[in-house]
Specification:
It is a single chain. By secondary structure, this protein is an alpha/beta fold. It has a single domain, classed as Roll (2,3-Dihydroxybiphenyl 1,2-Dioxygenase, domain 1). The protein is 18% helix and 38% strand. The strands form two sheets. Strands 1-4-3-2 form a four-stranded mixed sheet, covered by helices on one side. A four-stranded mixed sheet has the order 5-8-7-6, with helices on one face. InterPro entries: Glyas_Bleomycin-R_OHBP_Dase (IPR029068), Glyas_Fos-R_dOase_dom (IPR004360). It comes from Sulfurimonas aquatica.
Length: 133
């Protein structure tokens, strides 16, 4: 079971560290943890995302499934705030907000963003919190 002091870690490729910094830190509002010549480490909503400079590994034609990552919010206001921020700061939407599994217990709101290196980020909110896992 996850302890609140433990942090999930994800490493992804990026093509340019300055673009990556601008997207995640300046536009999306994440916190910079560390930056080196070959990577940037980000506090991504409480977890660690490390963007490794690896322009030869960029997905030229990204798809939502199966490769994406993101945040499932417990509070709807937090989901709404990120959606509002993404629109106001004109982040690139891979898919606009929509409802998945409408009318079912696992019904949830979701939207997808695309970072400058074509990594796909999903943000979602389940009406029934039991469905978060």
């Amino acid at each position: 079971m996850r302890n609140s002091s433990n942090v999930f870690h994800l490493a992804i490729p990026c093509k340019d560290l300055d673009e990556t910094f601008h997207f995640y830190i300046v536009k999306l509002g994440c916190k910079l943890a560390r930056r080196y010549n070959d990577r940037i480490t980000i506090d991504f909503f409480g977890d660690q995302v490390v963007c490794h400079l690896s322009p030869e590994n960029i997905d030229k034609d990204p798809q939502m499934y199966p490769r994406h990552f993101g945040v499932t919010f417990f509070e709807k206001k937090d989901y709404d705030n990120v959606l509002k921020l993404a629109k106001e700061r004109e982040l690139t939407f891979f898919h606009d907000e929509f409802i998945r599994f409408k009318g079912q217990v696992e019904e949830h709101l979701t939207f997808f963003l695309k970072d400058p290196s074509n990594n796909i980020l999903e943000f979602k909110y389940y009406y029934d919190h039991r469905m978060m896992y």
